[in-house]
From TrEMBL:
Residues 48-154 form the TonB-dependent receptor plug domain. InterPro entries: Beta-barrel_TonB, Beta-barrel_TonB_sf, Plug_dom, Plug_dom_sf, TonB-dep_rcpt-like. This is TonB-dependent receptor. It is a multi-pass membrane protein. The lineage of its organism: Bacteria, Pseudomonadati, Pseudomonadota, Gammaproteobacteria, Cellvibrionales. It comes from Gilvimarinus gilvus. The keyword Signal applies. Residues 179-583 form the TonB-dependent receptor-like beta-barrel domain.
């Protein structure tokens, strides 16, 4: 049955590549174009025509069509992205981009770095980000995050809903398998001077028994999440804008295998508060933004009723971002950043400055060259670079784009990694130094006038002195590598049917030459979106992974998962939907010894007025 599902999907994909079709308003939002605007590459609005880095985008229509409660489940359909989860919604979740560990990808929500400084490797707690009120996701793949100080995985830039010109109230409710329920309410509005958006969401599930090792208690491991989000903007003048963002997430997670000796009656409480205030001054030739942001995290684990782990930390950033348009074809981007990390009594300060030249030559050549310098009070100075080039050739039937980029990055050991080794007082644990990464990619894209989009990208990247666990935190003597290619295809098969597909091959190896754990060698998504009438929309997606190994080199079985959703708009104010996940009830493993969800169904209602 599973092989049949994939065979049918691939057959339809092959047929559709040669089909001629016309794009319509119903399907246009599901297809990228050369004029699709992105921010993540250089922290400024740019059309894909001018961008040479590798970027994938999910907009509001695509996020809504997938319908998942957790944003991590939405991300599974993006190219070169693998997601691992240890037992259902709210359980530890990691996103790997081009084979790199999850903490190597910087995650930002409305301009705020949501890294958890208290984490072992200080990455974002992706499992606590719900999809409610998320309007857009942009993923920059590879060590190209010059303006962010990002590591080799890249940058995931998440934007929430912006206010419309008229006051709008939205209400939503959903219920389904595992006694799950979700509620969302928001209100927003705007005029020429002020705009605002306030949203509140609540998600809860009884879950299932997460760990195979829980053979005694065998209880369901539930989760609940309350997220509040607000943004207000004031256009003081035609050139000056002030803006403030506040986001608070309060979550509680039941899980297995905590404390020592292991217990399965575990509760993890998590609270993260993100704030950002900014002032933007914009003229025809000059843009400047001064921003202050704060991420505050508190975490506590309770084992059998007793506190087993308790920590808190914060990240403060003061940023100055600028862009000077020297002429119609030459632009200079620049910035300064001061960052302070703190976890309990541990702290670190870091300064950074960057500059990038962006040029447009002739009819279709776009180039960039930039440098960044970071000065850490723990590890001194580090320089990173990025260069990129794209050439666009406009043809009668569409446009052909050839692109390539090269970038470097570094990751300082986390405060936890340093402190753990220090406390062991073990002379065999050498002092940790920053990891350094570099990588390049090259690709070709075709954007057809009919809506057809094809992209093929080759990538090759590596990390020197990668930090790993071996009775303490140790660094490899060589270079861990990741190389492969990505194929992406988006096209309208008819004016009522769009296909979005991608395939990624990733050869990720440690410095010792073994396969990196939990990274599939082959990943693919084939998605069909049907819009037979303005009131009805259906979405079907098949994802597959193959060639995965666990931490000890043992194979993890390949799998194929089928998800589908149907939405019907009853009126301009009310829509109803149903969603099925893992419809073939595939028994598959992402993390050894942890269960994944079986076949499940959900139904919900959206009201807008």
């Amino acid at each position: 049955m599973k092989q049949t599902i994939l065979a049918v999907a691939v057959s339809a994909l092959s047929t559709a590549v040669f089909a001629q079709s016309n794009n319509t308003e119903n399907t246009k939002a599901l297809l990228p174009t050369l004029e699709t605007m992105v921010v993540v590459s250089s922290r400024q609005q740019q059309p894909l025509r001018e961008v040479a880095t590798s970027i994938a985008v999910l907009d509001e229509a695509q996020i809504k069509a997938r319908g998942f409660t957790a944003l991590a489940d939405v991300l599974r359909s993006m190219p070169s992205v693998s997601v691992t989860n240890t037992g259902g919604m709210g359980k530890p979740t990691s996103i790997r981009v081009r084979g790199e560990s999850g903490y190597r990808t910087m995650v930002r929500v409305d301009g705020v770095d949501v890294t958890d400084p208290t984490g072992t490797q200080a990455g974002a707690q992706l499992q606590h980000i719900m999809s409610a009120d998320v309007s857009r996701v942009e993923l920059l793949r590879g060590p190209q995050g010059l303006m962010y100080g990002a590591d080799s995985g890249g940058v995931l830039n998440i934007s929430t809903t912006t206010a419309s010109d008229e006051t709008q109230v939205k209400l939503a409710a959903e219920g389904g398998s595992y006694d799950s329920q979700r509620y969302n309410a928001s209100v927003g509005g705007a005029n020429e001077t002020l705009d605002y958006f306030v949203g509140a969401s609540y998600a809860e599930t009884e879950g299932f028994n997460a760990s195979l090792a829980d053979a005694a208690l065998r209880d369901d491991d539930g989760y609940e999440n309350t997220t509040l989000h607000g943004r207000v903007g004031w256009n003081v003048s035609g050139a000056l804008r002030l803006e403030a963002v506040l986001r608070d997430t309060d979550a509680s997670n039941e899980f297995d295998r905590c404390s020592w000796p292991y217990q399965d009656d575990c509760i993890g409480d998590f609270e993260q508060t993100n704030t950002r205030v900014s002032a933007k001054y914009h003229t025809e030739r000059l843009n400047n933004e001064l921003a202050y942001s704060n991420t505050d995290v508190a975490r506590q684990n309770i084992a059998a009723g007793a506190v087993s782990y308790d920590t808190e930390g914060e990240i403060q950033k003061l940023e100055w971002l600028g862009r000077a348009k020297l002429s119609d074809t030459h632009t200079f981007a620049y910035g300064l950043e001061q960052r302070a990390d703190k976890v309990l009594e541990l702290s670190r300060d870091q300064w950074a400055a960057y500059a990038e030249y962006q040029g447009h030559y002739g009819h279709g050549l776009y180039v960039t060259a930039g440098v960044r310098r970071d000065d850490s009070d723990d590890f001194g100075d580090y320089n990173t670079f990025r260069m990129s080039g794209a050439y666009v050739l406009d043809l009668n039937a569409g446009s052909l784009k050839v692109k390539s980029s090269y970038g470097t990055g570094f990751r300082a050991p986390s405060l936890f990694e340093i402190d753990y080794n220090r406390q062991q007082n073990n002379p065999e644990l050498a002092p940790l130094t920053p990891e350094e990464s570099e990588g390049w990619d090259a690709g070709i894209e075709y954007f057809g006038n009919s809506g057809l989009h094809l992209e093929l990208v080759y990538f090759d990247q590596g990390i020197d002195r990668e930090i790993d666990w071996d009775g303490g935190y140790v660094q490899s003597a060589g270079e861990s590598t990741s190389e492969g290619f990505e194929f992406i295809a988006d096209f309208p098969m008819a004016d009522w049917l769009v296909i979005n597909a991608n395939y990624s091959y990733t050869d990720a190896k440690t410095a010792e030459g073994s396969v990196r754990a939990r990274q599939p060698e082959n990943m693919a998504n084939v998605g069909f979106t049907f819009v037979p009438a303005g009131a009805l929309q259906a979405s079907v997606n098949v994802r597959t992974a193959d060639g995965t190994q666990d931490r000890y080199g043992d194979p993890i079985a390949s799998y194929q998962v089928l998800d589908a959703s149907v939405r019907y708009t009853l009126s301009s104010a009310v829509s109803f939907y149903v969603r099925g996940e893992n419809l073939t009830d595939e028994e598959y493993v992402e993390v050894p010894n942890y269960r994944t969800a079986g076949a499940s169904g959900y139904a919900g209602l959206d009201v807008t007025f």
